[in-house]
Design a protein that fits this description.
326 residues; alpha/beta; 11 helices; 17% strand; globular; binds ligand PBG
């Protein structure tokens, strides 16, 4: 391509020209909105490090779900903040747990809103790790058993998709088998297959009170320096029966989103995590960045990198803006 036959600026001259040749579309169709469900009634507590994000009781979560549906967003993913935490995370496995209650209420009130659930012990354990701890180590195989019970309990409550985020080995296959045995063969698995040990989860851990009391998660989450390993993780989970593969976080890992998408021919999700949300909110509050433009640019980039769906705390803000024609 040579100048002056080719003038790159020719097709950038007006918004209508730009619209004609725009390669990536952003639409609420691709968003999943995270909800933090807490015990009680009429509870709506804003998370300090995540302006606009709240811990919600079940009744309030249903109200939020209605708003999400009204904005054309297909689904929500639920995280639980239990009444009590213990070493085994037992509150997370109970059919009477806060997430299970929220799933039932959402499915009853808003049957066509997709309900995803995060399957992990860290929200329910008193030590804050994602599994059973023995001698300072998170035990893989024993943890997988508990994750299977949690996934089945979420499916029984009516979850459409379960999303294991613990990073234990072999859990996708085990969960698939447990779901099928329980008659939940139509419940899909969105695997957090490629989940990095990231500093960008900080605000989430405030929201879910799930910061590890000792050590960190580097013994089970991935090293941010690795890319080939992401493909191994993703391939393994596809072989075990994952319906969709997630890369998390999103913005510092767009190369990984692209590699996974190119390699797998599977639906790929990216989690635009709490720290990515908090950074923009903080900068915007200081007047340092244009919130709406930066938000749309971030979400468009995640789509351009190859993500089919985006889990994002911006879902409602972005859907409102897109509705107005952003
Ligand atoms: C649970 C889980 C975490 C996130 C999603 N599921 C926290 C963690 O691994 O520490 C983070 C989401 C976010 O930061 O928005 N394991």
């Amino acid at each position: 391509m040579h100048f002056p036959e080719y003038r790159a600026r020719r097709m950038r001259r007006t918004e209508n020209l730009r619209r004609l040749v725009r390669e990536t579309r952003l639409s609420p169709d691709h968003f999943i909105y995270p909800l933090f469900v807490a015990p009680g009634q009429k509870v709506r507590r804003e998370v300090a490090s995540m302006p606009g994000v709240f811990q919600l009781s079940v009744d309030e979560a249903v109200r939020e779900g209605a708003e999400v549906r009204e904005l054309g967003i297909p689904g929500v993913i639920l995280f639980g903040i239990p009444e009590r935490k213990d070493a085994q995370g037992s509150e997370g496995l109970k059919d009477s747990g806060v997430v299970q209650k929220a799933v039932r209420a959402l499915k009853e009130e808003l049957p066509d809103l997709l309900v995803l659930t995060d399957v992990c012990l860290c929200e329910y354990t008193d030590h804050g790790h994602c599994g059973l701890v023995q001698g300072g180590d998170v035990k893989n195989d024993d943890t997988v058993e508990l994750l299977c019970r949690m996934a089945v309990s979420h499916a029984k409550a009516g979850a459409d998709i379960v999303a294991p985020s613990d990073m234990m080995d072999g859990r996708v296959g085990a969960i698939r088998e447990a779901l099928d045995e329980g008659g939940h063969e139509n419940v899909a698995i969105l695997s957090y297959a490629v989940k990095y040990a990231s500093a960008f989860y900080g605000p989430f851990r405030d929201a879910a009170h799930s910061t590890p009391k000792f050590g960190d998660r580097r013994g089970y989450q991935m090293d941010p320096a690795n890319g080939d390993e992401a493909l191994r993780e993703a391939l393994m989970d596809v072989d075990e029966g994952a319906d969709m593969i997630m890369v998390k976080p999103a913005l510092a890992y767009l190369d990984i989103v692209r590699r996974v998408k190119d390699e797998l021919n599977m639906p790929v999700a990216a989690y635009n995590v709490s720290g990515e949300y908090a950074m923009l909110k903080a900068a915007a509050q200081n007047g340092w960045l244009d919130h709406d433009r930066a938000m749309i640019e971030m979400l468009t980039s995640i789509r351009r990198a190859g993500a089919d769906l985006i889990l994002t705390y911006f879902a409602k803000d972005a859907a409102r803006l897109l509705r107005r024609g952003a």
